[in-house]
Amino acid sequence: MSKILPVRSPSADNGSIATFVAALPKAELHLHIEGTLEPELMFAIAARNGVRLPYSSVEEVRAAYEFSSLQDFLDIYYAGANALLELQDFYDLTWAYLEKAFTQNVRHAEIFFDPQTHTGRGVAFATVVDGISRALDDAQARLGISSRLIMCFLRHLDEADALRTLDEAMACRDRIAGVGLDSSERGNPPGKFREVFRRARAAGFIAVAHAGEEGPAEYVREALDVLEVVRIDHGNNALDDAGLVAELAQRRIPLTVCPLSNVKLRVVDDIARHPLKRMLDLGLFVTVNSDDPAYFGGYVNENYIAVAEALDLGRTELAQLAGNSIDASLLDSEAKSVLHAELDTAVHRFG
Ligand code: ADE
Ligand code: ZN
Questions:
Q1: Mutate to test the pocket of ligand 1, among 74, 193, 213, 290 (most ligand atoms within 8 A of CB)
Q2: Which residues does 264 contact at the CB level (< 8 Å), separation at least 6?
Q3: Which ligand is nearest to the CA of 74?
Q4: 3-state secondary structure (DSSP) of residue 272
Q5: CA of 107 to the centre of ligand 2 (A)
Q6: Sheet strands side by side (includes 206-211)
Q7: Does any ligand 1 atom lie closer than 6 A to the CB of residue 213?
Q8: What is the DSSP string of 47-85?
């Protein structure tokens, strides 16, 4: 484990957007831990595990990160995850992300993992959860970052596989806060996972789902009505349905939006046309997140900065987004109040 890092003290002497964003305490609510695997760590872990990667160098890996669609990305992302075999690999992966998050003033992280990506290769469910959890515990103790773990079902697989995964998760019930739904969206509507979500909710897991990233507004509607999710991951295409937008706003359903991901996966053709500002103007409860930062060219602060610059967001809107990330989290009201007080202090320092 790395040594304790110095406490950050963002200074208010530089008026740049980047300095302001860095000073804001934030919660990251849409972050796939497998998507934080930087090429250097991928190579180091693959080498010690004797795993052959389909690349000969770190440079070649980075050069492969030009995606034409979600599926194009997922093929590469699952290939990278093949390096991960041992508990220590999951620990190192998670710790590396948390150290990075610390430097960006992430105070709380809700982290997705894809158990089927690993159990399908013979890695035990508990190996994955224990490795990640130990790093999360260390981050709470040493970096002051709180966290929750959310396991995602892979929507390209069938519901029977998801049900078996839920059964396996029960042995680690106390370590997992919720269930989610990710992977190839088109052709895999939320309704395909009705029963596994019903059982997960009955077992006390909160439910979230990716919807409206590449799939239609109808999938967002189904995630709400059939899976009874408390948050929508992405949600961009909800904007095609005015009635749905009104309901999302009225019910204050958080959307975990990922701007750089949207550009990299061609959900949005240009960051200047990203719908985040429109979402805010429509009264939607939006948050900014990084999704798979090792693949998309930026962690959470780079996402805030990208939309601030491209959409001309001011400090008030950036502070609102940070506040939304706190409110949309699974933290209890006391922990939210603590972070809100820190946020107020940070904002006031900038006058
Ligand atoms: N898995 C990792 N990142 C994802 C994304 N952006 N959409 C769906 N599944 C994912
Ligand atoms: Zn995602």
A1: 74
A2: 65, 67, 73, 295, 296, 297
A3: 1
A4: helix
A5: 20
A6: 26-32, 106-113, 146-154, 178-182, 206-211, 231-234, 254-257, 285-288
A7: yes
A8: HHHTPPPS-SSHHHHHHT---SSHHHHHHHHHHHHTT--
* Active-site residue, from 34, 110, 213, 214: 213
φ, ψ dihedrals at 152, nearest 5°:
-100, 140
Tokens at residue 266, please?
A: 């061609």
Q: What is the pLDDT of residues 164-202, one digit of tens each?
A: 999 999 999 999 999 999 999 999 999 999 999 999 999
Per-residue pLDDT tens digits for 34-53: 999 999 999 999 999 999 99
Using the structure block, give the residue that is written with the tokens 């061609």: 266
List the one residue out of 46, 44, 75, 40 whose CA is nearest residue 60.
40
CA distance 29 to 249: 18
Among 153, 264, 291, name the best residue to mutate to test ligand 1's pocket (greatest count of ligand atoms within 8 A of Cβ). Answer: 291
Nearest partner of 262 among 239, 228, 229, judged by Cα: 239
Distance (angstroms) between ligand 1 centre and the Cα of 94 equals 17
- 149-169 pLDDT, tens digit per residue, is 999 999 999 999 999 999 999
- DSSP for 321-341, written as a single string: HHHHHHHTSS--HHHHHHHHH
Give the count of alpha carbons within 13 A of 75, CB side only. Answer: 10
Please tell me the predicted confidence (pLDDT) of residue 15.
60
For the entire predicted model, the pTM comes to 0.96
Q: CA 5, CA 143: separation in Å to the nearest integer?
A: 7
Distance 74 CA to ligand 1 centre (A): 7
Cα–Cα dist 127/112, whole Å: 16
For the question of residue 309 being annotated catalytic, the response is no
